[in-house]
Amino acid sequence: MVRWFWQRDKAPRRTLVLRSRGDVGDATRVDFAELAPELNTFLGQAAYLQLGYFETLTRLIRATDDLAEKEILSRAAGAALAKHHAIVAIIAAHGDRPTEVMLPFREQLDAFRRKTLGPRIAETMLAVYLTAGMLDDFYIALASSYGEIGAEVARILSEADDRHEIVGIVQATIASDEQWRSLLSMWGRRLVGDTILVARAALRPHLPGAENDRLEPVFTELMGAHARRMDAMGLAS
Fold first, then answer.
1. Which of 56-70, 174-188, 212-226 has the lowest mean pLDDT?
2. DSSP assignment, residue 103?
3. Stretch 61-86: mean pLDDT, rounded?
4. Does domain 36-232 correspond to CATH entry 1.20.1260.10?
5. Can you tell me the distance from the alpha carbon of 229 to that of 237, in angstroms, rounded to the nearest whole number?
6. Are the CB atoms for 151 and 158 separated by under 8 Å?
7. Helix or strand run (H / E) with residue 147
8. C-alpha span between 182 and 175 (Å, rounded)
9. pTM confidence score
C-alpha cells in the first residue's frame, strides 16, 4: 500500500541536491527538512515518468515516416524503457508490487503528458527532450533523500538517455523553415510551467512561503538547465 507523504511518521531531515549529470563532487545543498515524499511515492513517480517517456516516444516512432528519425527515436524509447524496468526492479526488491506503487500517480502524470503532446511531431519531440530533461534532473536531485536506494535510482537516471539526437532533428526542422524557430521557442517556454508543477507536486501540494524560499534555488537551477537546452537548439528561452 502506498503511503502518501502527509501520512508518514517523523523522519530524519533530508537534503535535496541538484548537481550536473555525472558530477559526484560537492554540490549546493538545499535543506528541505521533511518535504521529500515517502520512498514509494518517489519510486512510483520516477518509474511511471520513464514509462510515459517510452510511450510518447513510441507514438512519435509511429507518427514519422523518416526511417532515420524512427531509429533515433527508437534508441531514446529503448533507454527510457530500460530505466523504467530498472526502477521497477528496485520497487520489487523492496517488497512491493510495482503496478500498485505507480498507480496513484498515473492520472496526474498522464494528464501532464497529454498537455505536452504537440499538434505536430516537432513540438512533441521538443516536449519529450525538454520535460524529460528537467524532470530527470529533479528526480536525480531528490534521490539524495533516500540513501542507498536513492543513489541507485540516481545512477539509473544518470545513464545515457539517447535523447541528444532529438536535438539534431529539431535543428533540421528549424533549418527547413525559419518560422519553426519562433513556434518552437514559444512551445518550449509553455512547457516550463507545467513541468515545474509536476516537480512541486512530488514534494507537497501546498508550500508555505518560507518553504517556497528553500525550493527557489532548486527550481532556478532547473530553469537554468532548461534555458541551456533551448540555447543548444538555437531557440530563445
1. 212-226
2. G
3. 96
4. yes
5. 9
6. no
7. helix 147-158
8. 12
9. 0.82
